[in-house]
From TrEMBL:
One of its GO terms (cellular component) is cytosol. GO terms for molecular function: ATP binding; hydrolase activity; nucleic acid binding; RNA helicase activity. The lineage of its organism: Eukaryota, Metazoa, Ecdysozoa, Arthropoda, Crustacea. Residues 90-182 form the Helicase C-terminal domain. SUPFAM superfamilies: P-loop containing nucleoside triphosphate hydrolases. Keywords: ATP-binding, Helicase, Hydrolase, Nucleotide-binding. It comes from Darwinula stevensoni. The keyword Hydrolase applies. PROSITE patterns: HELICASE_ATP_BIND_1, HELICASE_CTER. InterPro entries: DEAD/DEAH_box_helicase_dom, DEAD_box_RNA_helicase, Helicase_ATP-bd, Helicase_C-like, P-loop_NTPase. This is Helicase.
Length: 182
């Protein structure tokens, strides 16, 4: 796995690795990243985005076991902002992170679905939620968002009425609300 992946990653900007658990995928992508890092560059040189905090921590652990002498930081929800700011006083060569969940508001159902599919095409996990959906589908979307299977909930103002999702720290208004109170 490592040998094949190394060649592919070095030659290509984007690479998708598919293989069973325990086959060496983590090392397969970390080794070529390590080869590309420059000790003279004091900025972030590589970014790894993961879907879960656990995977972020696992990748960090493998990197530290490699004893590369390149600084690594993880960024995920659950730390105080002061800790994250302190970690960037001297930027790491490698940053591994998990995006915090966000709600994206659109004014129309069609815009909700279109925005959701645009995110999906870019490999960004999202679900959509609006009044035109069956109740079971709306509930499933909320379950996926709450358990962070999807990091973005694309919705109409329906989600502004009574939903309580404590993990959400970011709200994005893709369209401006129609009324001030919305």
């Amino acid at each position: 796995m490592q040998k094949t992946a190394n060649t592919t990653i070095i030659e290509n900007e984007n690479t998708l690795l598919l293989s069973p658990t325990g086959s060496g995928k983590t090392l397969a992508f970390l080794l070529p990243i390590f080869q590309k890092l420059n000790q003279e560059n004091k900025q972030i040189q590589a970014l790894i985005i993961t879907p879960t905090r656990e995977l972020t921590l696992q990748i960090e652990q493998v990197w530290r076991k490699m004893k590369t002498n390149f600084k690594v930081n993880v960024a995920h929800g659950g730390h105080a902002k002061s800790i994250e700011k302190h970690n960037f006083i001297s930027p790491p060569a490698l940053l591994i992170g998990t995006p915090e969940p966000a709600i994206i508001f659109c004014n129309h159902r069609e815009a909700v679905e279109r925005t959701h599919w645009e995110l999906k095409q870019k490999g960004i996990d999202s679900v959509f939620y609006h009044g035109g959906m069956e109740q079971d589908d709306r509930e499933l979307a909320l379950i996926k968002f709450r358990n962070q299977s999807a990091h973005f909930l694309v919705t109409t103002d329906l989600a502004a009425r009574g939903l309580d999702i404590p993990s959400v720290k970011h709200i994005i208004h893709y369209h401006l609300p129609n009324k001030e109170e919305d």
